[in-house]
Structures are given as structure tokens and as C-alpha cells.
Amino acid sequence: MKQKQLVIILFLFTVNTGWCQAPNGGKNDLDWWQKTIFYQIYPRSFMDSDGDGIGDLKGIISKLGHLKESGVDATWLSPIFKSPMVDFGYDISDFTDIQDEYGTREDFEALIKEANKLGIKIIVDFVPNHTSDECEWFKKSVKREPGYEDFYVWHDGRKGADGKIHPPNNWISVFEGSAWEWNKERGQYYLHQFTAGQPDLNFRNPKVLAAMDDVLQFWLSKGVAGFRVDAICHLFEVEDLRDEPESGKPNNQSYEFLEHIYTKDLPETYDVVYHWRKLLDNYKKENGGDTPVMLTEAYANISSVMDYYESKDGVQGAQVPFNFYLISDLNMNSDARDFLSNIQRWISYMPVTGTPNWVLGNHDRPRVASRFGPERADGLNLLLLTLPGIAVTYNGEEIGMVDYRDITYDETKDPAARRFGFSEDFKEISRDPVRTPFQWDDTKNAGFSTAETTWLPVHPNYENLNLAKQKSAERSTFFGLAITRDVLAFKRELKGEDTFVTVINFGSQEHTVDLRYLGGLPDTLIVAAAGSGSIYREGDIVEAVSLKLSSHDSILFRCITVNKREETAQLVRTALTVLNASIVLIIVYRFYRGSFKPNLLYKSV
Ligand code: NOJ
Ligand code: MG
Asked: Per the database record, which ranges form the Glycosyl hydrolase family 13 catalytic domain (predicted)?
């Protein structure tokens, strides 16, 4: 396994070097979102402040320090809005209010304020495709109230040979079964791409678009830094409601049974995305401040995904069309060649003005450690965070949490799984294993909540696998550090041995960086070795608070406290004079790999 990690490290530096030579418009022009980590918080499972077993906004506020320490400067929150929780917040009944169990609008304002103090930006989830069936808009539409008649996709249905009324076509919902639900009161079917509690909005109605524009304006005015746009590829369906062709796959209730050529990735979708980009750009023009960003969620073929960046004519869309290919196209058996071609494919298809992004996990897909094997979690985190462009990660991945697959059917909450009833299949479908509470420490409920029962069970491995333990452990996967896009820094420590800190400036600009974000360092560090372009020499003493780096600098520090490991310095010094920094990194890694598990603290470079 270690050998494989080494291979991954090798090629990722190759890729990085290539990218450095062809940046988009020069590094000086990079906007905040181009050099950040987007860390997804699943609010229900992050931190519970009031002991009800459910995470909440005050809980998030109390843990902002963890984000800061981890080098995270933007966080995307899964939905926190009013919702009957049929799909755990992805069924919104009021788009501008906060769900009671998560807190209040005031709590949200406090979150923005506290996060901003730490330089952390808050991104909210924007769910335009559907509402809850408890949303006022839906209730009004059911009653055909003026202005709301066509807010959703309604249809009388088809009369079958049996003389009965059937759904208008064969469309299947993502969560399986017919995508149509009969509404008695209105006497019509409505379309739902997800659960029946999530009726699809009718985006062919300009009033719907206007209502959704208002939602974006509302949250922008509250100080959010952008939006993760949910299920964007499902926004439109063909108007004549044609049947979709069968794919040849079995199970006529399953979403895979049909080819979704009339209900997904329709060209109209992109115009709405470009329209929203304009709205965000105009907001900035009118109000100043940082660029608001749009991150779009679409599991689709690569050409369709690329169209979210910009139109053929260069009309701008989402800055971050999520790149899910590291998730969808790779697995336990993937080797370095698979990774490399996967990475190169995204870069080849991306428009030249685009910024690459890399998504390694989210609340819908198994965790990295479960998908690739726990031994590879470190290597995968390193890959994600050192690839050119934007890293997108999910809470818990930084400590290598694993899926909790022993959740019983009675404990299962995910509607996608519950519809199977108590059968073998529910475990294959359930997204609950990736949504269990964050493992902070080894106290009750992993420090997540003081409640007797938490909304989903805590993974029983929390006593060994938790953040507190990793912070103090000899071997750890905990990462963290905010420096710059150019500067990579990491700390290697083993009890009873010297602690070493590696700092590499991959860029041509000079930087002054504060190494104290690595945590647990003395105020001064001693230079063990430095690259040829460095102003430092072996034995120099530097202040951790403000380390000056020349262009392409590379320095190895020893924390002055402990006994000598002269051979390390000698090895690295020799390597530095002869080889380039990426090779040195590998040598340091090789040197240590007998006694260390890689414990890299890093940030996107
Ligand atoms: C994608 C979300 O990530 C998922 O959790 C949700 O069930 C669907 N969209 C429906 O909103
Ligand atoms: Mg709570």
C-alpha cells in the first residue's frame, strides 16, 4: 500500500509542474475561490450545541476553529432551511428561513460574522429543481391560486386500456418508481425527480425563475459567498413529455432502467446557469465585496459538465462545475495510471479560462476511506489538496472517517433507502453510512452531542478514530494549514524524535508566511537544509511567525528542542543541491516511511 502512495505522490508533482506553466492569466490575477478548499459541512451531523442529537448552527460556530486550523477558508453547508426533512433538507418548505432544529436567522447571521472574523466564507446550498410539498408555492399551486397554477409540472394523466388514469409517461424518479404522483385535491399528477415530497418546479414559467432569483438575492444580502446548486441537470424536461427509451438494464422501477435523454442535461438548463452567473456578477458590481461563486452539482458526461463553465460563445456560467470523476470513475482497484488519465481528462476538456476542481467526497457517496481503502486515505487527501486548482472535501475526510455500514433498517433515515422496506437492498442504496456524526473525540457520542440518542448512530470506531486523537497521535491523517496557492508546508513528528517542517514555494513570487498555523511549533525554527535559491543556510534561526520565502524556495526546518538527526539534514541537503524540490519531497517521504505514516498538513497549491 505504501508503495502505491509513493507512486501517487510522484505523478501529482509532475502534473503540478505542468499546470504552473499554463495558469489562467497569471497567478497574480487569481481570485479567492481559485485557490481555496471548499469544505462541505453536513450540518445535521457536524456539531450539536443543544443536546437534541441533531447538529446545528451554534454547533458549527463552536467548531470554526477546526476549519481554520485545517486550512479551510470556505465552507459549503448542506441545506439549513425550513423543511419537513423528507430528504433531510433537500425538500425546502421556506427558502429564506432556517429550520428550527438548526437555529434561527440570527444564528445564521452570527455564523457569518464569526466565520468572517476567521477569514472563512460561507456558501449555502441552493435547491432550485424542487420544493417540499409543504412549501406555500406548492399549496397554492394545488389550489390553482392565480399566479401559481403553473409553478409545478402538472398533468391530467393518460387513460389506460383498463379505463383507469395512469401517469402521463414512463419517467422514473432518481429514487426509483414513477416520477409522477397523483394529487387528489387538484385532480392531476405532478412530476417529482426525487421523492414525492419534492415536487419539481416548472422552469418554463418565468415566475419560477424570478422567485428563485429572489432567493439568491436574499442570501447574498445576508453575506453568503456563493451557492452550491443542487441537482442542476434535472431542471428541465421535454415539454411534450415523451417516453424515455429503455437502457436494457433490468428492474423497471430503477432509475437506470431508462436512458434519461428527455429529463436530464437539457440545453435550456445552461441558459439558467448563465443567467444566475450574471445575477451574481451584477450583485458584486452593485455591492462590491468578494466575487460570489456558483458550484454546480451535475453527475453527467464530461461534455455536458463542461458546458456549465461557459457557453460555446464564452458566456460565463459556474466557476466550479463539480468534477465528480475522481468519485465516479475510480475505485479500490484504480492505480496511478487510472488517476493520471482521470486528471488529465478533466484538464483536456476544460475551457482555457476555467479553473480545475477536484471533488473527493460528499454526503451522497461513500467516504474516501471506504471507497479507496483506509490505507489510501492519506494519499488521496494529499492528491486532492495538491492538484492544481480547487479542492472540494467533505467533513470527516480530514480524519479519514469510514462509512458506518451496520446501521439497521430501523435506524435508517435516508428516504432513498427506506423505500426498499426491510430487504437486503437498503444497505446498498443508503446514504446514511456517510452521514454519521463527526468524530471529535473519545467522549460520549464522539463529542458530537450530549443527547442519549443521536439522529444517526455514531460510528462505534470513534474511540480510536477521532480528531482529538489524531491531533496528538504519533501517526495521523490530520491535515491543515492555510498558506497560499504557491506554498506547501507540512510537519512530520514522532514522539521522542525531532519534529521536521517542510516548506516549499512552488511559485515564482516571494511570500511571507506564518508557520504557526501548523500548530504546536516553537516560536523559532532551525534551518536543517535549504534549496539553492533560498536566502537561508543550514543553522539559521527563523521566526515561525513570519518566514520569508524566495521564489521557488524549499526549506527543511528542525524544531530546536530535541536531539540531533544529522543524517536527515545531510540527506536532504544533498538532495536539495542536486535535485528539484518535488524529488526532495519524495526522498523525505522515503526516508521516513519506515517509521511514519504520512502526516501532511497542506493546502491547495
Ligand atoms: C442532490 C443532493 O446532494 C442529494 O442529497 C439530494 O437527495 C438530491 N440532490 C435531491 O435534492
Ligand atoms: Mg441540536
From this structure: 40-435
Whether 297 is catalytic is yes
CA atoms in the 13 A half-sphere facing the CB of 255: 14
Round to whole Å and give the CA distance between 555 and 578: 14
What is the DSSP code (8-state) at residue 258? B
Would you identify the CATH topology of the domain 130-202+235-265?
Oligo-1,6-glucosidase; domain 2 (3.90.400)
For the chain, the C-alpha Rg in angstroms (whole number) is 25
Which atom of ligand 1 sits closest to the CA of residue 127? Answer: 11
Catalytic residue among 107, 125, 244, 297: 297
Lowest mean pLDDT across 38-47, 154-163, 340-349, 382-391:
382-391
428-444 per-position pLDDT tens digit:
899 999 999 999 999 99
Residues 6+ apart with CB under 8 A from 565: 497, 498, 558
Residue range 27-48: mean pLDDT, rounded: 90
- Any residues with CB less than 8 A from the CB of 159 and at least 6 apart, and which? 165, 166
Tell me whether residue 248 is exposed, middle or buried, using C-beta atoms within 10 angstroms of its C-beta: 0 to 12, 13 to 18, 19 or more.
exposed
- 392 forms bridges with which residues in the sheet? 38, 359
Alpha helices in 166-266 (DSSP H): 206-221
Q: Which of 299, 318, 293, 298 is nearest to 308 (CA)?
A: 318
Which atom from ligand 1 is nearest to the alpha carbon of 130?
Answer: 11
More confident residue, 573 or 460: 460
Strands (E), 539-587: 541-543, 547-549, 554-559
Largest CA distance in the chain: 90
Best probe residue, ligand 1, of 42, 81, 87 (max atoms within 8 Å of C-beta): 87
**DSSP 8-state secondary structure symbol assigned to residue 140:** H
| Angle CA 350–351–353, to nearest 5 | 120
424-456 core/surface letters (b: 16 or more CB in 10 A; e: else):
eebbebbbbbbbbbbbbbeeebbbbbeeeebbb
d(CA 222, CA 298): 26
Residue 151 is given by DSSP the state: S
Determine which helix (DSSP H) or strand (DSSP E) holds 115, and give its type and residue range: helix 105-117
Q: Mean pLDDT score of the chain, rounded to an integer? A: 85
Residue with cell 528539484: 580
Q: How far away, in angstroms, is 87 Cα from ligand 1 center? A: 8
Q: Answer yes or no: 230 catalytic.
A: yes
What are the tens digits of pLDDT across the range 176-208? 999 999 999 999 999 999 999 999 999 999 999
The answer to whether the CB of 364 is under 6 A from ligand 1 is yes
Q: Whose CA is nearest to atom 10 of ligand 1?
A: 90
Nearest-10 crossing angle of helices 566-578, 581-592: 150
User: Where does residue 351 rank: exposed (0-12), middle (13-18), buried (19+ CB within 10 A)?
Assistant: middle
Task: Determine contact, residues 500/528, Cβ cutoff 8 Å.
Answer: yes
Query: For 105, what's the count of Cα atoms within 13 Å in the CB-facing half-sphere?
Result: 9
